[in-house]
Amino acid sequence: MQTRAKFGVGIGVIVVSLAFLAWLGYGESKTYYHTIAEYQSLQGSARNHRMRLAGTVAPGTIKHLPGRIEFVLEEQGKSLPVSYIGTDPLPDTFVDKSQALVEGRPSSDGKFVAEHVQAKCASKYESAPGGDKPAPAATTQTSSTYSAQ
Amino acid sequence: MDVFGSFSLLLAFVCAVYAFLGGMVAIKTRHPLLVKSTRQAGMATCVLIFIATLSLEYLLFTDTFSMAYVVSHSNRDLSTFYKFAALWAGQEGSLLFWSTLLSIYVLSVLIAYRHKNGELMPYVGVILAGVQIFFLTLNNFVENPFKTLATVSASGALEPFTRLDGNGLNPLLQYPEMVIHPPNLYSGYTGFTIPFAFALAALLARYPGEKWIHLTRKWTMIAWCFQSVGILLGAHWAYAVLGWGGYWGWDPVENASLLPWLSGTAFLHSVMMQEKRGMMKVWNVWLVFSTFLLCILGTFLTRSGVVSSVHAFANSQIGPWFVGFIILTILVCFAAYFKNRDYLKSENVLDSMVSRESSFLFNNLLFLVACIAVLSGTLFPVFSEWFTSNRISVGAPFFNKVMIPIGLAILFLTGVGPLLAWRKTSLDSLKRNFGWPLLVGIFFGIAAFVLGYRDGASMLCLFLCGFVTWTIVLEFYRGAKVIRARTGMSLMMGAHELAMRNTRRYGGYVVHFGMVLIFIGLAGAAFNIDTQKAMNVGDSLKLGPYTLVLQSGDTKVDKNYTAQRMIVEVLKGNKQIMLLYPEKRQFQGNEQAAGTMVAIYSTLREDLYVVYAGMDPEANVPVIHAFLNPLVKWIWLGGVWVVMGTLLALMPNRRATLVLAATTQPAAAVPGEPALTPHVSLREGHD
């Protein structure tokens, strides 16, 4: 019985400490997914979360400025100005009308400051014209991926 | 050919249903002819699936652009190599490929055991047919690869339609690894079906003893090896093609491949507890059930895009089918377990905290926690949306915080576990076994510090790598010494003889050494640095000891793409080392489809990883992004050792009759085996 108790304690210590680490990691990296409409109606502290928003890049809005790249994301008639401040160049697939996923936090002036941008191009992989069924296979690329491996 | 393939697939479905239903009747009636005919139906299923796959390959190779699948994933200029790989480039083809690989395993099992294990095989056949029915349902009725193009004519009728050329293969997949990575990973995923089927069959049939473990050991190792290689190739692909400087991003699809690997590794270890001590029977059965379920879940995550991911190319209607199949499998497993759980009673109890048993127990605990952590992190967006209506994802910090300590603890056990005695280990034997390894480990730690690798987790990791390596070296040395004393062989030959006599044990050590090398590579990740610069021709960029000079840029035209190539000279000190050619490829006919080809100068110390990141829009000069990633090469080297170790473990043991006949000391018959306390009855095992 004593051996069993020892094993119990050992297992307990391992599980509890790993759960604690998981909780820390969760707090550090949790990211909310929102639609642009949801984002615009967020109130109070919910606006300070790290979040991920998806939309289509509005044609002609990509502007390269010193230190940042600005563009507008559109989704269901709502639009959102985004300022990308990441150091990595935007992916090859990031062009007008591509579907993009931005990750970052809102800034005080209403712009969304993105640290990462992923883009999925609506290329012709998406559908075979005349085919009875689209064969979805879009390429997704990411601007900069997460710091660790 | 499309009709032919389509028909084979349908016929395969019919055969599988017969093998399943007929098999169930055969189990009840035990009618020998029925047993035989259902077994043959199982074999026919496999052969028909092969025919269907060959038909699809034929259509790809003959550029049959009336087929939707061929149009979507191939084009005329695609090289033969990639036309072959187009089989698994899309949803329908991948699922067919899954069925094909599963069929290779199923057919091998049905043929190999056709005259053996008569009690068990009908159950195994039924379970395998059940899994095949699920995939054949998808192949036939949900994601059929043999769909033809049609167009609506003026009169409103559908007419067949042929395109002049196809859309081509996704550029991200046009890379040599992409041709071998999916077959490896899928062979891993499908391979775990075999131990699953035998475990479930043994439980249902109340098949005596550990026979199922002995029967499936080799199949499990083969699947595990494929899975390991598949994961490493995937990591290498991400490293060499995606151009972000890393090889592992905790992406849902990467995680999906890791999950069955974690539980499968736990299973490979815990079966030894059952073989040697008759313990953990319930645990083993559930581990193998979980591994199979995680394989199905992995396929589901990869193919359905349920968690938005870099890899999740597809969003289709297969989701509910997979969820249904997973739920059904869980129900069957539970039903079998509750019906026959008395059959899984343990024969022994744990005696001591410091024993081989306890090291296996903690090994399994850690693998299990790792599995739960990765699974919950991966599915977090799905579950958070379900329960709170907020879709929340967790990123790399979550996984790293949990997985780094687990990885280090498992690495520690890799060194300690094999040297502990069964039941109870004395303090004396601990000192004898671990004195030198500890010293070597400390030396490694100090060396890491001196060389500048000063990060807590990395230094601990390198310390453990030294420690584990030395425990392995000592194991070989001690055993080889005994053989040398008896036969007069040299120490090297003795080590070889030793490994051949107990391939499983020493193959295991070689795999462990491979894992040590992988951990050395992982430890390097804490010291990655990178820099980026818009460069004119002649400009230079400094990174660590290297200086990069942009020499010029040119354009390279290939059959299927046009590449913008930068020529970068690498200098170390003032000495020219080599030229690197990072590229951006523009694939033919796809205005938007571009691919990055990273140029890597790889040494054991570090990788210089250079990406041509595109043109700077303001200055209109090329941007070069360079990374310095220490020790990455060790990961790939470790992979080679893992494969070699597994191959060694798969070889039959060489009999040592001649040598043993010359001696009268049976106590030393197993060289290097830690001293056992007297009166321990160990079972016949192969370890």
Can you tell me about this structure?
The complex is a heterodimer of chains A (149) and B (687). By secondary structure, chain A is an alpha+beta fold. Chain A folds into 2 domains: 1-30; 31-142, Nucleic acid-binding proteins (OB fold (Dihydrolipoamide Acetyltransferase, E2P)). Chain A has helices at 2-29, 36-40, and strands spanning 31-34, 51-57, 63-65, 68-75, 78-84, 99-106, 112-120, 140-142. The longest helix of chain A is centred in the N-terminal third of the chain and has 28 residues, at 2-29. Residues 122-149 of chain A have low confidence and may be disordered. With 687 residues, chain B is an alpha+beta fold. Among the domains of chain B are: 1-148, Four Helix Bundle (Hemerythrin (Met), subunit A) (Up-down Bundle); 529-633, no CATH class. In chain B, strands 5, 6, 7, 8, 9 and 10 form a 6-stranded antiparallel beta sheet that branches. A 4-stranded antiparallel beta sheet of chain B has the order 4-13-12-11, with no helix packed on it. Chain B has a two-stranded antiparallel ribbon with strand order 1-2. The two termini of chain B are 51 Å apart. The model of chain B is unreliable at 309-314 and 658-687 (pLDDT under 50). β1 (31-34) of chain A pairs antiparallel with β3 of chain B, so a sheet runs across the interface.
Helix content of chain A: 10-25%
What percent of residues of chain B are in strands? 5-15%
The Rg value of chain A, from CA coordinates, equals 21 Å
- Name of the CATH class of the largest domain in chain A: Mainly Beta
Shape of chain A: elongated
Chain pair with largest interface: A-B, 57 and 80 residues
Instruction: Compute the number of structural domains of chain A.
Output: 2
Q: What is the C-alpha radius of gyration of chain B, as a whole number of Å?
A: 28 Å
Please identify the top-level CATH class of the domain at 1-148 in chain B. Mainly Alpha
SSE run of chain A: HEHEEEEEEE
Task: Find the count of extended strands of chain B (DSSP E, 2+ residues).
Answer: 13
Helical stretch tally of chain A: 2
Q: Summarize the biggest pleated sheet of chain B.
A: 6 strands, antiparallel
Mean pLDDT of chain A: 73
- Give unreliable regions of chain A as ranges: 122-149
How would the global form of chain B be characterised? Answer: globular
